[in-house]
Write a structure and sequence with these properties.
Number of domains: 1
Structural class: alpha+beta
Largest sheet: 3 strands, antiparallel
Number of strands: 5
Order of helices and strands: HEEEEEH
Radius of gyration: 14 Å
Helix content: 10-25%
Distance between the termini: 22 Å
């Protein structure tokens, strides 16, 4: 995903890389409309805070990947 985002000049993104063949999360936004003021990630989630370039809107986006295994679910 990082490679794809880097190729697209209009977009930026926050990424939590996959572990092996499972997982991986991405949040992508249009850089002409949004400014990222904070991005935190873990292997199971991304929290991204975006402010509108017009200054009249702010959003916080949580993307969560919940694993299939019970023990990992508890940790998540």
């Amino acid at each position: 995903m990082k490679k794809i985002i880097d190729q697209q000049k209009q977009y930026l993104g926050s990424i939590s890389e996959s572990r092996g063949a499972s997982g991986g999360i991405v949040t992508i936004w249009d850089r002409s409309k949004w400014i990222c003021t904070a991005a935190n990630s873990h292997q199971n989630w991304i929290k991204t805070t975006l402010d509108s370039r017009t200054g009249n809107q702010a959003v916080i986006i949580y993307n969560v990947y919940v694993p299939n295994h019970y023990r990992e679910k508890e940790i998540c």
